[in-house]
Amino acid sequence: MKSRKLLMIPGPIEFEPEVLSALGQPTTSHVAPNFIQSFGNAMRMMRKVWLAPTGQPFIMAGTGTLAMDMAAVNLIEKGDKVLVISTGYFGLRYAELLLRYGAEVTFLQSEVGDVVPLEMIEDELKKGDYKLLTFTHVDTSTAVMVDPKPIGKLALKYNVLSILDGVCSVAGEEIRQEEWGIDVVLTASQKAIGVPPGLALLVASKKAMNVWKNRKTPVANYYSDWSNWLPIMQAYESGNPSYFGTPAVNLVMALEKSLEIILDEGMDVRFARHQLMAKAFREAMKAMGLKNIPINDEVSAATLSAPYYPDGITGGQMLAQVNIEGVILAGGLLPEIKGDYFRIGHMGSINRADTLATISAIEVSLKKGGHIFEEGVGVKAAQRVLS
Ligand SMILES: *Cc1c(COP(=O)(O)O)cnc(C)c1O
Would you state the pLDDT for residue 306? Predict the structure, then answer.
């Protein structure tokens, strides 16, 4: 494994060996008793990871974008008013997706690196007749983290359904779906859930399921329609075979394993570990003279960091050097500033050794690129946080 590189991007991430061996089991029938059991277990564990004891989980073959699509298309009908609260790239995606299904979208965009102020959200909700709001927990293009709790409260106060895009946060950032009153929390397998790409995952509240049941018009997307999938989820959970579309058998077995690992660690311990690693990265970047996109620690994600390149450093060259040093990082994603910054994913199985190795690779690459700073300050700053 001498040529193995450490994959430190915001998904896919480094996966636990047990998850990869679960994935490599012989593929069984999608109606085999052991598979039905795995599927049911995974759903029951999702409720614990999402902290949504009475929620309805869905496990689909697809990516995070499918989970966004499924949540939106089942909850809105043509002409419904939706408030999209955006902190970057994925907020815009949600708006485009909703427009496609005929929603009337109002778009609130934050300044780069900041969140949309709560007063602004409340002012908009006061204007009335919104059916739904969407927001992104961690926008993967900026590493900005939005606190879901007060937004969940506002949605309850104004009787608006809420969808949280948690693709870059579920099982990394603190989420208490039911306590916080959020109607749908969605994600994808390849991020903090720790399973190779290919699963779209979401948990819907009772209220969301009722709104869907009382629709006046059919769901505008055949594949995503909960009428097709709810009976399948219910069958799997009660231990019965069922079929609508073939599930991603091996990925579901890997999901079962990963959720076990997540729950063995414990949600609070896991949230705290992500916080700690993120702080180590932020302090290391600051010590080396790099500025992070999020304007302060309060709005900084625990699952990834997004520092600007320092003056004189060209992105492509630096990322290529980091790769030579054995670590894979991601470039920028937000179109306005795409070439000005890079992204480090630190979620899932991330540990101290990964953190220090990554910072060290960045440090060496910055030095080789001509950035002037005291050698070793990055690793030292991280060690101070970690010890
Ligand atoms: C990655 C990501 C998505 C899209 O997920 P895909 O699996 O790439 O479709 C959506 N929202 C956020 C916040 C993400 O990080």
Answer: 98
